[in-house]
Amino acid sequence: MSALPAAVEDRTGYQRTAFKHWNAGDLPADGCNTRQEVLLAEAVVYPEIGPGCTLTGGVWWSYYDEREVTPAGALDIDHVVPLAEAWDSGASAWSAARREAYANDQGQAASLVAVTARSNRSKADQDPAEWLPPSADALCRYGAEWTATKLRWGLAVDELERDRLLDIAAGCGGTDVEFTPAP
Q: What's residue 1's pLDDT?
């Protein structure tokens, strides 16, 4: 946690449109956007891929609420650290290209996760001081992924957020936070 810079968060000027997301993804030639590529990467049972990267069949696991999910349309792709939270924590100073890279980050599995629409929408743009996954078994993974994403992108934490992350970590002995700095 000490590697995370502390700062007061500021949402001034935030607009979701400042983060272009669901671009052509990591493999533009595959015809799938970032959302679809994340769904393919996280499928427990791989779906059929139709024209325009239409996904049919397939099964996914939403770890936030420990639910098996099908069809793909019942899932949201969650920015583990929400776009508004990233803005508040330092992304407001980034270029449009860097914000787009953040919103479509598949370079670290922890940045974008497929979860039930219900859990993602209950989370909205809240940080761990305000929202945690409903499954107690998800807390250690969620805390580690949140921290890894903040570290990857050089984002700050506010005092309440840091305190909650430390509380989570205290109950997660042996959970590693692994990240690669964003390019």
A: 58
